[in-house]
Structures are given as C-alpha cells and as structure tokens.
Amino acid sequence: MTITDSPPSGEAPPGPRGRVVRRRASGDTERGFSRIFRWIATGAGALILAVLAAVALFLIARGWPAITATPAELADSVPRYPDDTSLVAYVGPLVFGTLLAAVLALLLATPVGMGIALFISHYAPRRLAQGLGYLVDLLAAIPSVIYGLWGFLVLAPVLKPVWFWLGENASWFPLFAGKVSATGKSIATVAVVLAVMVLPIITAVSREVFLQTPKLHEEAALALGATRWEMVRTAVLPFGRSGVISAAMLGLGRALGETMAVLMILSPGFTYSLHLLEAGNHQTIAAYIANDFPEASGLAVNTLIATGLALFVITLAVNMLARWIVARRKEFSGAN
Amino acid sequence: MNTTISAAEAMQQTKEMLTASGQRRKNVDRMMTVVIWFCFALALAPLVSLLWTVLGNGIGRMSIDFLTLSMRNVFPGDPGGGIYHAIVGTLIITGFAALISVPVGVLTAIYLVEYGRGPLARAVTFFVDVMTGIPSIVAGLFVVALFTLILGPGARIGVMGAVALSVLMIPVVVRSSEEMLKLVPNELREASYALGVPKWLTILRVVLRTSVAGLTTGVLLAVARVIGETAPLLIAVGVTDSFNVNPFDGRMMTLPVFAYREYSQGNAPCREGDLGCVTDIAFQNAWGAALTLIAIVMLLNIVGRLVNRWFAPKLR
Fold this sequence. Notes:
The structure holds two protein chains of two kinds.
Chain A: H1 17-26, H2 33-68, H3 71-77, H4 87-123, H5 126-141, H6 144-169, H7 187-211, H8 215-223, H9 228-257, H10 260-265, H11 285-292, H12 299-327
Helix pairs in contact in A: 2-12, 4-5, 4-7, 4-9, 5-7, 6-7, 7-9, 8-9, 9-12, 11-12
Chain B: H1 7-19, H2 22-58, H3 64-68, H4 84-115, H5 118-131, H6 136-151, H7 158-183, H8 186-194, H9 199-226, H10 231-236, H11 255-265, H12 281-311
Helix pairs in contact in B: 2-12, 4-7, 4-9, 4-11, 6-7, 7-9, 8-9, 9-12, 11-12
C-alpha cells in the first residue's frame, strides 16, 4: 500500500509502546478541521456498511409478516397462491428456476469468456487489444431492458430452429426432453441471453488475471519449445485458475439477480421441471417480483419482499464467496 | 496463485508434452487459435446484432414529436405521443441518484485511500465489493420497504427511484474513485505537507484536484451503468403517461420503464380500415425509447473516456 501517513512525522518511531498507542488515539498531528474531515470521510465509509445492513434489516422486517403467516392467510391474499402450501414450498420452484437459469448461463459463458480473455491478453494483435477490450465492455453498458427486447424479438426466432433440432435429435437427454416451445420463450433462450449479459464481467476479471501471469513463466515455456497454446496451458491457465473461478462466481451473482431480460423473454410457470426447451415451466425470483409487484397490496407485498430476501441471501453468499477468493489477489474487482 | 502440482511432476508433464509428436502439437495449437478467435467473434455477434436491431427498428420512430411529446391522452394504436416525459424523468432521477452517490462514494474512497486502515477499512472494502453484486430488484424492494414505512403503502415517487439507483451506484463510484486517488503520487501529498498545509486541505486542493478528470470519468461511467436500470424503477417509481418534474410527488416515467411498458402492451387492437391506428405502434415506441437510451449510454461512455484522456494530468 502506498498511503501517506499523517504529515510531519510519518510512521511513529519505534519507541515505548504506550506512546505509540497514545499518539494514534489522540491523533496528535490532527487539529481543527482535519479531525472533522477525517470524521466525515470515516462516516461515509460507515454509511455504506449501514446501508447494506439496512437493506437486510428492512427486507427481513417487511418480509416477516409473510414468513410468519399461515398458508391459509397467504392463499387468501396472494394471487395464484396454491392452497395448503407453506411459503418455503411456494418459493422453492422460484429458487430452482433462478439457480437453473443462472447456472446454465454460466456454463455457456465461462468457456467463451475465458476464450475472449485469452484472445485479448495473448492472441490479439497488441495494438488492437485494448480497443477490442472496450468492445467487450460495451456489452456490459447495454441496458438490460434492451437485452430483453432483443432477446425476444431477434434471438428467440434465431434459436428456435436450434431448439427444435435438439428436441428432435437429442430428446433422449433429459434436459432436452419434453415439448419444444413454439415461441422460443423457454429457459434455454433466457440462459443464452443471460450468458451474453455476464460475458463482460467474466472476461474483464479473467483478462486481468491472465495479464498478471509472470512474463518469465511464459518466456520459459516458449524457450522450452512450447507452442503458443501449450504456453497458455502450462503457464497462463494454472496461474489464473483462482481468478477464473471468482470471475465465474461474480458472473453467477449477476445472472442470479437479472430481472428484465428474464421477465420479457420467459413464459413463466412454477415447477421443478428440468425440461429446458419447454415454455411455462420456470420462473426466476427477480422476474416474479418485477411482474407481480406493481399490482400487489397487503400481505402479497410482504410475500414478494420475503422472496426478495431469499434472492438477496443467495446473491450475497455467492458474491461474498467470490470476493473472498478474489481478495486473496487484490488488484481487481467487478466495478472497475 | 500456484500450480497445485509439484515441480517434479510439472517437469515430467512438460517433458512428455515436448517429446510428443510435433505435427499433432502444431495442429492442436492451430486449432486452439481458431477456437479462441471464434470465441471473440461469438461475443461480437450479439453486440453487433443488438446495436443494429436497435438502430434499424428505432430510427423509424424518431422525430421531433417523439422526443418532445408525452403519452398523455394517447390511446392504444395511436401513432402520436412521445417519450419527452420519460427522458425528463430519467434525467431527474439519475441526476438525484448521482447527487446522493457522488459525495458518499468519493468521501468513502478518500477514507479508504487517505485514512483507511484497520478492521473498518477492510470491512468497507470488502462490502463495497459485495455491494456491486446486489441485484437491482433487491435495491428496489429495499427502497419500497423503507419509504412505504414512512409514507404509507402505495407510495411511488421519483426520489425512491433515485435512492434505489444510488444503492447500486455508490459501490461503483467508490471503486473507480479509489483507483483514481491511488494514482496520485505521494510526492504531491508530501510536498503539500512540507509547506504546512493541513491534511484536509491537501486532500481537497491537491489530491482531488489532481484526480478530478479520473473521478469525472468514474462518475460518468457509473451513471451510464445505472441509467439503464429498469427493475428498481418499475417497482419504486411506477409508471405514468404524463409529464412530471417533481421527484417528491407522484409517479414518474423513465426511459427503460417506458420501453418495458410499451413492450408489454403488445399489439394494439385496431379496427379494420382505421387508418389512424397502427397495430405495432407499441413495439415501435419501445424501440424508439431503446434507441434514445442506448444513445445516452454510449454518449456517457464516450465522454467519460475522452474526459480522462484529455484532462488527466500526465503523471508518467
């Protein structure tokens, strides 16, 4: 770290222990407004933690009535709520749909994202590399509602023949079984769109790690006569493994919380179906909330907030795990 | 960080690989080059297709009327009306979000770079990163939960949207500002201290002034990131067809929500022979709003990068 210490003295000289502690505590070198400014800056930092805590607290507080309500009460006030179902059983298929869409998107996006990262870090002509990197970053700049429009009106018709082909020739595979949707509004289409949406973050993080590969390792591999791919496989990929894992986790976090693209493409349903090509079987938490919230009132609002709490907990866990992995190698994060 | 295999094993592997048949290795290498180029092309395909579709579908709806009228008293199928109310709503709500996020974000970055050490700083760094992953809909729910407690159920005002967006925006501002403040050379700070300038003035007049271009870039990119958010605005601000400039009273329309609303309305029921009725006008409106939105986002991205290129001090 290259942080300057308090102005005149720098680090306190190694002296008697008590003295150091006293200096820190009283902040000898800070007088007047300097001290106030430090409080303001520290307050801003603390505010962020407070906001995150507030998010959790308010979601719990407002979701609580739904969590404690009896199934009968819920069935009365929540539209389309089946009788005799606990809240957990009701939210279960939503959690399943959310995880299914996100994991599928990740399976599609991670290999491609790694390929793009390698392309930019090791394969593209040097001069073009940065510009091409910007191009991929542009994918992250496009608003999700536009992905939704595009996914439904352009991508779904393009993918439909592919899904039909899979449905005809690969229906022995459980994931592709069932009746292929005639509109393409299936979770498979959603997964493809989500994969495009999480590509930029996976690419950005893996690119940073790949670029950090020690030059000497790469040159050593090449000097031993390795081809370029062998150099990548023996020097770059092993070095970047943890980075790629956390990149994938960050992508998973994004895909879990994505709302609009799912809402606009998927034809919803509440089952634990594994038939990816069928429409009307799945729904994600985020899309469910966005769809039902504008018309909800009373206990239905609490139910939606409780579902949101489930989403918050899942994404928080995924992100914290990813950050914990990434924090071991500091220099990058999704936000830069 | 390290390979998980031992050095001896790695040497063995490398030896085997290098003594394998040369032609096969070359073929594999060539194949992987093709695969990796293909991956890149695969990422560009949606980008190009998307931009092309938005441009192609949106340009036809563009007109002065479309940009300067609201949707008030426009019936389904009526080709009149426009997105003026949505543009104004987007600018106001995003502006308020920036007004909240920039001071908090930059001050936090100052805290982390200039003062931060110990458990609080570590916690802030970690949770700022975690916060970048909060789903936007959860931010919207949080704001609704917060404001309906104060204003009663059913409250939908512009400021709620601004707060929701700032929850999403603050971590982005913190991270980018932090990077920029770290770039300020220590010599500048030390020179300032040597002249007897107190720390807070040093930060305001030396550190911030040196990095102002980078900070602007960071803020513009952060704005570009949240300006397209739909879900939190949909649940926290609601929809309206009328013009509303007061973020403290009543619902507001925003561009992304407008695009979604028009999309979800679908084809209009037109009577046969009714020439004043256009069946797919809602989709056209959606594409028009999408084009406007993308234009704003791209503009912010380009201006952001140019600001940094033109005004950044030459440190090296």
